[in-house]
Amino acid sequence: MSSSSTQDELPLRIFASSVILLVYSFICREASDAGMLFRILVVGGISVVSYFTVSFFISSVIPLFLKAGLFGRDINKKGTPNGEEKVPEPLGLVPATVYIMILCVLHLVAFHNGDARLYTAAMACVTFMTLLGFADDVLDLRWRYKLVLPLIASLPLLVNYTGKTTVILPRIIRPFVGWIASHFGGGLVGSVSGRLVDLGLGYYIYMAMLSVFCTNAINIYAGINGLEVGQSVVMAIFVTIHNALNLRSDIPKDDIHLLRVHHAFSLDMMLPFIAVCLGLMYHNWYPSRVFVGDTFCYFAGMTFAMGSILGHYSTTLLLFFVPQIINFVYSLPQLFGILPCPRHRLPKYNVKTARLEGVKTHLNLVNLVLLITGPLHERTLCFLLLVLQAVCCSLALVLRALYLRYFP
For position 255, what pLDDT does the model report? Predict the structure, then answer.
């Protein structure tokens, strides 16, 4: 390993250690009983072990992937020696496999909040999505199949889900909805004030669509070293903070015990997810020695979807996905064939300046940022996009707090 590579990895090691200590200490401070604290420490300890496990096994299986012909070349370094190197892909299979094993261990020690069936369904969805993602990497499926795969993978949860199908309406439209329900209702609204609305079958459709969006939103917001796994780490950290805030027993909620159960379940999924992603990020950060592949994007998206659905914060999750939503909306003309859509909508690499330059005809957020800022080094661009992700997630937490305070 070269000295420059070692220097690039040192900040990542510091970042990973700092994030783990910060998030775990924050959660432990918010946990208000010994049982919850013990549970978090157990999951946290398993997560730390999983970080080193993923990092070690990725190094071990790199030769196997190359021998099997599972590799690609870094298009963003085309014209340089690095652009001719074979980069093993899809190494997202390793963290996904370790993560599934962790869920099995947590299931074994009864960390399923009293509903083993839903926990099993979540594991099945993540496992199914990982398998389909690996199949996509190997078979190179068409885009129309990529929209169907998450629907298939979410079936175990949809079949076993027996939770609430109600959503809380904003205060400004509650009187209107309540009036409609009182005159034409038929059981549409769960309260006279119109605060709750029961979506019924619509909620199941919403869960399926959320699974499709989360998996594909990460998949199309990609193309530079570290971006796919980096954005997942940032979002998972903010989801964890959101879960930690809702572990407090002194917040004014209708059913604080049930709320804490839901968010504790989400923590069980998010803490190991952060750890395995950091283990992958260690190898995928610039200059990337492995590619994550569609396997990781599908695995990460399904994990977010399952955590938010079973943690009952799916609306808040969409606030954390604001950059992905912007990227999706901006990409719509090409995704739907209105404008020509090249296979790789990557920036243009300038060999002379060693910078990436935005391409106007490639409609995604990566190129849009480059068109606004001008040419950037790939590592700088990735860091900037991750800062943007963190800023959007921070604003999401602030806006949610303000909404709950002034518009409960």
Answer: 58
